[in-house]
Amino acid sequence: MTNCGPSAKEFEEKRVSDSIRVSDSLAMIPNISNELNLSTKTPDDKQFIKTAETKFLVSNVRTASEKIEDLAKTYAGYVTNSDLRNQESDYEIIDICKDSVLILKKIIVKNDLILRIPNERLDSLVRELNNLIVFLDYRIVKMDEITFNLLANQKESERLKTYDLRQKKHIDNKENKLKETSTAEENILNRQMQADKLQVGNLELEDQIKYCTLTIFIYQKPLLYKETQVRFDKNSHRGNLVNRILDAVIDGWVMFEYFIVFLFRIWWLFVIVAGGILIYKFWMKSRKNK
User: Fold this and answer.
1) If you write DSSP's letter for every residue of 156-170 in order, what string do you get?
2) Domain ranges, ordered by start, for the chain
3) Taking a C-beta distance cutoff of 8 angstroms, is the pair 210, 48 a contact?
4) Using one digit for the tens of pLDDT, what is the confidence trace for 10-31?
5) What span, in angstroms and rounded, lies between the C-alpha atoms of 205 and 196?
6) Which of 66, 163, 188, 209 is surrounded by the most beta carbons within 10 Å?
7) Residue 142: how many CA atoms within 13 Å on its side-chain side?
8) Quick one: how far is CA 133 from the chain centroid?
9) How far is Cα 179 from Cα 162, in angstroms, rounded to an integer?
């Protein structure tokens, strides 16, 4: 059988060395800042919907995820999404000997979190995240002013309310015909539906003003995963011709050794055959002398 030798070890050492070089090169990249210095103070007479997004490297994704989830609760917020997963890449199968292969792949652990945090506590929570950051990729802050959107919705609600009162008075007038009354009631129903949509829309806007949306993407340095597996289908992984000839010679020599050992095991048969031949010759000789 072909010797597996140090092939698996050599491949492992090479991959580990490459991983170390990648980690070292990461440390040499000019970093914009390893701190999230976020300030979202806005004028008191204006209304804003605040959203923030950041991505950074952490030492351990699972530990950092638990810390972030705890921080959300500490600052009276909550987590709406937490997508913790392993991402595989650079999958490779390497032949290391006749009946086994080495499987190598790179594992990147990451998590995408979405938090809803009270507006006045967003800055404090973000400062707490600085303790988790190893390398900051980016930070994006958006503040969309909706002061006039709220005002427009308020004015439209007042108009619908006034229209509703006028239509009700029109319906209460007994001089109106039934057809006109039905049409007026239909109009009231449609206007009430519009008013309900405006009310729900305003509640959604107020919720977005009260709670900021913070999206966090975290990841850790790639991990090298290696595993040696037995090759079950030998025909699909045949070696080159020289190796197969050498294997055949070795297998033939092993069979020859078994054959020699087998001959020694039946020594008694050779003794019987030799004795029989001697007896036969002696009998033939004595017969000729007569």
Assistant:
1) HHHHHHHHHHHHHHH
2) 7-145+211-230, 149-207, 239-289
3) no
4) 555 555 455 444 444 444 444 5
5) 14
6) 188
7) 10
8) 20
9) 23
